């Protein structure tokens, strides 16, 4: 519909352009006719002056032959006057006709310009209303999407709470040199540290969570395998950041095996995070984990994930023994 209106407006603009060209052409024709008419009137003035001079000379002539010659000249100039006046009259009639045509063409231009302004205004108004409807629809869609996301997050939180309430108590050893275990063991690929894991660890610690991570727990000369086993044994939860990089490294697979084993034995809890992965990707790499409730980084921000970790810590530590 809008395209049809634009097409009509373009056709009207072409017609208006044609009328404007007609006005310019007629005005040019009138200017030419007025110049020709002025030339004929100049001829009338010249011939009249010559005729009057000849008549005066004939009146003053002393001989009949001289008077006859002057009278002949006066007659020729009289004919020139008649001829020039006749042409001037025809030019005047043509000018009058052209002026009539010009008036009609100018009226068409004025009407076309008024119609163009009205159609353009109507078109802009319709477009404005259409844009307003589109903006409202987009705003409604965004609100609906926000509600859907909020509902999904509520469902995930409820599912986590349900899982927590139906889980039997599990035993976690105190960390070495500490009176309490760690809250979370973070299993991840080294390549994911910079774009996600470091920010997650920092935000979790700032929120008051006790986090075991390799950068702080393993120092030069330590046995990596022994330190990982110790960290797993002394943490309430094993947070696994599953990513394409995760499935490429042997140490992450070792950590995952340990976390899964503790989860199955009731001595810990596996909490998966999907980073740059879909459920299909997880199903292809680790089918047993695809059915686990996970927090995808594509939907949850780091702050929201930390909030969920706080909820998990408070729920599970309350039943730990």
TL;DR of this structure?
Helices cover 72% and strands 7% of the residues.
Notes on the protein architecture:
By secondary structure, the protein is α/β, with parallel strands linked by helices. The protein has 9 helices and 5 strands, in the order H-H-E-H-E-H-H-E-H-E-H-H-E-H. It has a 5-stranded parallel beta sheet. Strand 3, helix 6 and strand 4 form a beta-alpha-beta unit. Helix 1 runs antiparallel to helix 2, helix 2 runs parallel beside helix 9 and helix 3 packs across helix 9.
The count of strands amounts to 5
Shape: rod-shaped
N-to-C order of helices and strands: HHEHEHHEHEHHEH
Helix share, percent: over 70%
Structural class call reads alpha/beta
Radius of gyration: 50 Å
The overall pLDDT average reads 79
């Amino acid at each position: 519909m809008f395209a049809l209106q634009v097409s009509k407006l373009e056709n009207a603009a072409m017609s208006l352009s044609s009328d404007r060209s007609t006005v310019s052409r007629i005005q040019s024709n009138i200017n030419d006719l007025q110049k020709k008419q002025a030339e004929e009137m100049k001829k009338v003035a010249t011939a009249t002056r010559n005729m009057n001079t000849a008549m005066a000379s004939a009146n003053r002539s002393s001989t009949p032959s001289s008077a006859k010659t002057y009278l002949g000249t006066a007659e020729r100039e009289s004919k020139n006057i008649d001829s020039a006046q006749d042409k001037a009259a025809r030019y005047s009639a043509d000018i009058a006709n052209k002026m009539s045509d010009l008036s009609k063409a100018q009226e068409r231009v004025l009407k076309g310009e008024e119609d163009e302004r009205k159609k353009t205004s109507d078109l802009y108004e319709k477009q404005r209303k259409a844009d307003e409807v589109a903006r409202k629809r987009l705003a409604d869609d965004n609100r609906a999407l926000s509600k859907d996301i909020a509902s999904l997050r509520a469902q995930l939180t409820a599912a986590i709470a349900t899982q927590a309430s139906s889980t039997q108590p599990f035993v976690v050893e105190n960390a070495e040199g500490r009176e309490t275990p760690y809250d979370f063991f973070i299993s991840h690929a080294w390549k994911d540290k910079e774009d996600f894991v470091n920010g997650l660890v920092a935000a979790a610690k700032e929120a008051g969570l006790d986090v075991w991570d390799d950068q702080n727990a393993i120092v030069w000369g330590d046995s990596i395998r022994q330190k990982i086993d110790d960290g797993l044994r002394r943490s309430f939860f094993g947070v696994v950041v599953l990513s394409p990089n995760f499935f490429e490294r042997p140490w992450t697979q070792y950590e995952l095996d340990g976390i899964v084993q503790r989860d199955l034995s009731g001595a810990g809890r596996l909490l998966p995070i999907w980073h740059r992965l879909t459920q299909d990707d997880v199903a292809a790499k680790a089918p047993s984990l695809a059915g686990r409730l996970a927090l995808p980084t594509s939907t949850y921000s780091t702050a929201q994930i930390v909030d969920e970790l706080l909820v998990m810590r408070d729920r599970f530590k309350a039943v730990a023994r």
